[in-house]
Write a structure and sequence with these properties.
- The protein has 223 residues and is of the alpha/beta class.
- The chain has a single domain, classed as Purple Acid Phosphatase, chain A, domain 2 (4-Layer Sandwich).
- Helices cover 16% and strands 33% of the residues.
Amino acid sequence: MSPLTVSIEGIELRFLAQRGLYWPEQETLFIADTHFGKEATFRSAGIAAPRGCTGGTLATISNMLRETHASRLVLLGDMFHARTSISEDIRNSLDTFFTDHSELKFSLVLGNHDLHIKRFPSHWPIEILETGTKLGRISVSHLPQSPVPGSDLLLCGHLHPAYRLVSRFDSIGKLSCFWLSQRQLVLPAIGEFTGTEVIKPQKSDRTWVIADGQIIEIRQPNP
């Protein structure tokens, strides 16, 4: 899978086809909307859901960490889906992840789903970032908002953005995407058991879709 390096507001960023964003200057990997344990929450409600989604998401994140050699991971909200998401097997999976990446600095911007979690296990090395926290020239949030004063770009999640491809006669399908609008860069959801929301970019926006392991910029907005 080939990354794509893009300069936004003079900041060099690397778009990853695994649905992550790497900032080489700060050795930081950004991801959004893991929704760990969503399948466990569904099963606890008696709804059939596939097993192994959280493990697959963690494997994807680990691969990106190895490929980029990132020293910090910032999750832009919705780490978990609900209070019932932190089941025993999910805790064990996260325990293994943190052990395997013991030198990693892990930061979380709380998302709307995370607010249902009263307390994370105390041995998890999670640093909570306030909405609007500045990391150099970049500010971070879960919900889209304007960049805070003193920052040139906001990174956020929440929307699970996707771009719908259309021909003259039909809708071809939709692809997860990165969406830049008014200095807000919305990351795609990385969680394997999450849906998407089709966006409608404006002419001044930029959109990059993920297709067959490649990052491709869509230069014309939807009609």
